[in-house]
Amino acid sequence: MCIKKINKIEFINNVKKIKARVHSIETFGAVDGPGIRFVLFLQGCHLRCLYCHNPDSWDLNSGNEVSLKNILKNIMAYKKFYKKGGVTISGGEPLLQHEFLFEFLDALNMLGFHSAIDTNGFIDLKYSQKCIDRANMLLLDIKELEEEDCIELTGYSNKNTLKTLQYCQSINKEVWIRYVCVPNYTLKNEKLHKLGNLLKDYSCVKKVDLIPFHQLGSYKYKDLNIAYKLESSPTPSTEQMQNAKEIINGYGLQT
Question: Can you give the pTM of this predicted structure?
């Protein structure tokens, strides 16, 4: 492996002088890809998902400006925990900062870390392709398959997300799908069947992560003086989530 062929300290001290806008960092992530992971949440997202629990991540010019070198040093401080895991870059939408992201992924590859991008796939492939190629896997958020419903839910079309999935299939890039189950929106049997029917033909999809909607970030909307349309929306019941899993499993997909 590359990690045996380089002086890691020297390599990190000589990485490209580039910075990222960072929302937050989690050093012991257990739900953002396989194993225990360092999770870097980058600032900036152009979607306005009604259920977003981090509206404070939307503004690309907010957050803290952090150098690539300092981020890598932070990862190396906890490296023993990531031997069976790796590093996940999330957001916001990390591919908005695709120039930084590519350099980061390149460095992670040189240092021997498994890498995953958690993306909504809305960034055009002409900007995202080289990052997708460099990462070990994608956590791809499918917001909604119906075009009009997707625009209502996020403010944007889902066409680039589906193109991103098709590209991953064409290069055999491992993908875990993420789908947020929102009562009265995405948590409907017909929508789950449509999702399962689509994904069953993609051999690159190794897992479908069904995420129950929650209200944990609702207070942020009030703090930021942003209207929150799902204030009265309930959290899915255990029975509803089990039903969703059974539908997706019925198409031969792992949840």
Answer: 0.94
